[in-house]
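Before our next group meeting I need something from you. Please put the record directly below this note.
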Amino acid sequence: MATNYVLIDFENVQPKNLGLLGEQPFQVFVFIGANQTKLPRNVVVAMQALGAKAQYVEIDGSGPNALDFHIAYYMGTLAAEDQKGNFHIVSRDKGFDPLIRHLKGRKIRVRRVIDIAEIPNLRIPGKTKKSEMIDLIVKNLVDRGHSRPRKVKTLQNTIDNLISDKLSESELAGLIGEMEKQKLIAIEKGNVKYTLPR
């Protein structure tokens, strides 16, 4: 089975769901900027639980894109060592996308995601019961904190990315309708407001 390498741009994304990686063949690299002097407790606990499968990469200097260049270097080094690996850059920074396109052109399996739950191996199976699917979607949205989708279309795309099988428009609308019915969300003029559990 191919190893999945997860490279987290911690200046850009502070994932709360690192624990999802525990039971899979993952190697996790959390890139920390020079000015990041404190880490959230939940991240430290999750990294410790991952043991030898996880490591921090501290950036010595600061400057525009300093952390991004480190991620690109590690990405290239790991891809040279393991040409059958799957690579996942966790970042909202679209500046990685040209590099990803270039690497894909060289047959390297790489993608950028903004949430760990979007990594294909971790996606919700399409045959999951609707109630369980909503529970998993809600958990993902809670973990996102303030970076939840604000528009209905973005919420649809987020849900679609979380589920392994492609959903039809009516299935997506059904899930969102059920979330409204359960008063987890409210939709006004295409905008989404959340009343999620903490």
About this structure: Residues 126 and 165 are 5 Å apart (CA to CA). The chain has two domains: 4-120, 124-194. The longest strand covers residues 26-32. The chain has a mean pLDDT of 88.
